[in-house]
Structures are given as structure tokens and as C-alpha cells.
Amino acid sequence: MNTWRPLGFLLSLRNGIAPLGSAKAWLDACGIVPANGLVVQECPAGLVRVRVADGRMAFEAPPLTRYEAVAEKDLDRAAKALDISRADILDSSWLVNGPRWLGVRLASAEAVLGLRPDPGKLNDLEIDVIGPHAAGSETQFEVRAFFGGEAVWEEPVTGSLNAGFAQWLTDTGIAPPNYVASQGQVLGRRGSIHVNVEDGAIWVGGNVRSCIAGTIEI
């Protein structure tokens, strides 16, 4: 039986910073939103702008450091790891912006939700998968993110991969400049990710809330 393990704080561990979570924690503790609504954070990717407006937070996506077609041998590996046919993959791209995301596009949100990756074949791959919901749905795309080891780990909501998807899908005309994606449904932690492309900048965000509060005495 395949195993999935949700890891809600994964972004901060793997990328060095969770932009929206860190900004929310700072604002809750002592921060003040400037008049222009922008907070700037420093992280391994450089200076990241976070916008606070209308009860929602969004970060400006850093540039992709690898953005190119995926070799056929890697696509074959990805298909086997996802336990699907190679023909099920409609398109793909490397979407590296810290994590080494291999982006895969499937025909539908239902196909994405039905994935049951094989942990023995995922190995070092970090695969993000997207598929469209039917017209008229509350969200336009369904997203899932997997990486391997002894088990398959799946992230509930992932800013880095949604930033990569936004670049790829808007560049190829698959997605409009403004859309909403959902992620985490299979884990029982469904989140809505709002994407806006404005003047060449990609903003990724949504409603952010604090789940844990406390103090540490040092």
C-alpha cells in the first residue's frame, strides 16, 4: 500500500522561508503594514515582496532558475512514479525556483485528484501536477505536489510550485492572467490559491490565518 504524509511546514524547511506564513506571524506579533501595503522579506531567493490588501496576502514570485522542456527519459520516470500512462501527460516543464519542481499537466482535475504515486519509483523526483476543473467551477485548476523517499510526501498548499505553474500556464495560454487554483483536497486540507499577473509580475496568495501562537523565553 502506498503511503502519503502531509507536511504543512515543509515550505519553510525546504525553501528557507514561507513568505506568507512568515509575514503573517510578523504582522501578528508586532509588524505594521506600510501605507503602500508592501512588506519586503529577505530569503535565500533574495528580497521577496509581500502584498497585504483586502484581507488577503500575496507574494511576488521570484524568477525561475530552470524553465525548459523536460527530457523524455525524465517524463517516463515521472509517469511511472505517478502510476499513469506517458500518454496521460499532456505537457511538462521544469519549474525550478528553489525546489526542483518537474511540472506535469493532465487533462482534468479528476485525473489529478485520482493520482496514487508509487513511493518506490518517485525517488529524487519532485513532481507537481495540475489539471483543469470543469467550466463554471469555483476554482479553475487542481494542483498536487509530491516528492519521495521511503514514502510519498504530499504538500497541502505550496507557494513555490503555484508560482512556477503561474509562469508556465500563462506563458503558454493555458491559464488567464488571473485565476484560482485549489490544493490539498486529498489531504483534507483544501486551500485556494489566487494568482494574478500584473505588469509582468506574478502574485501568488490567498487568505492566511494563524493556527498556533505562543512565546519562547530565552
TrEMBL record:
Domain of life: Bacteria
One protein family per Pfam: PhzC-PhzF
SUPFAM superfamilies (UniProt xref): Diaminopimelate epimerase-like
Organism: Paeniglutamicibacter psychrophenolicus
InterPro entries: Phenazine_PhzF-like
Protein name: PhzF family phenazine biosynthesis protein
